[in-house]
Amino acid sequence: MAKERGLISPSDFAQLQKYMEYSTKKVSDVLKLFEDGEMAKYVQGDAIGYEGFQQFLKIYLEVDNVPRHLSLALFQSFETGHCLNETNVTKDVVCLSDVSCYFSLLEGGRPEDKLEFTFKLYDTDRNGILDSSEVDKIILQMMRVAEYLDWDVSELRPILQEMMKEIDYDGSGSVSQAEWVRAGATTVPLLVLLGLEMTLKDDGQHMWRPKRFPRPVYCNLCESSIGLGKQGLSCNRPITCVGARRL
């Protein structure tokens, strides 16, 4: 079953979104069942096999029978070597933290709450610190979601990398939860990706509105990126702020 990690098809992703629209469950609720509830029997370390993954989908999507082609495609898209290395499991598995992170990014909610939740997923020792490799796992899931949403990820990657440089100002390779949430909440393209639910957001300098752009757009005043590919934010204040400089 193992294969190189990849993306599910656009039609499978559309079907997944339909299921999520009708589900009332949150990832955090399902995760509790796998951590210390009736589903804990499916977990070994941070790894779950295909049967456990099917149970996760069944509970989270509130569907008795998730189509096999969809559950299998999703499972294979999450397969990765680091779960095997960390748990010494020899069978086909996926990381529960990766699965939970991915779905939490897609579901509704405040961007700040999503940033905090994804951080805690990988902060296994609960010391409030992540190293660079753990943060990379979160960013990887963000990149995957961006690809499904038809973003130009070649533009998103350097923005996230620059954000990480600003967080890790001392070059220690570690990031605190407060630093992670603060940086993410002030990175406009990331806020769009996380699902900015407000129709208008005033950050003190700009009044942002969701908008679709044909190409990446930058603010003419502060040089910050405000749009990636087909999605972004426009400023409602100075007319010179929006669309003044494009790639």
UniProtKB/TrEMBL annotation:
What Gene3D superfamilies is this protein classified in?
3.30.60.20, Diacylglycerol kinase alpha, EF-hand
Q: Which residues form the EF-hand domain?
A: 110-145, 155-190
Q: Kindly state which keywords UniProt assigns to this record, in alphabetical order.
A: Calcium, Metal-binding, Zinc
- Entry-linked Pfam families: C1_1 (PF00130), DAG_kinase_N (PF14513), EF-hand_7 (PF13499)
Catalytic activity field:
a 1,2-diacyl-sn-glycerol + ATP = a 1,2-diacyl-sn-glycero-3-phosphate + ADP + H(+)
Going by the entry's taxonomy, the superkingdom of the source organism is recorded as: Eukaryota
- SMART domains found in the cross-reference section: EFh (SM00054)
Q: Sorted alphabetically, which InterPro entries does this protein's record hold? A: C1-like_sf (IPR046349), DAG_kinase_typeI_N (IPR029477), DGK_typeI_N_sf (IPR038199), EF-hand-dom_pair (IPR011992), EF_Hand_1_Ca_BS (IPR018247), EF_hand_dom (IPR002048), PKC_DAG/PE (IPR002219)
One of the entry's Gene Ontology molecular-function terms is:
calcium ion binding
Would the keyword Metal-binding turn up in this protein's UniProt record?
A: yes
Name this protein carries in UniProt: DGKA isoform 2
Q: Which organism is it from?
A: Pongo abelii (Sumatran orangutan)
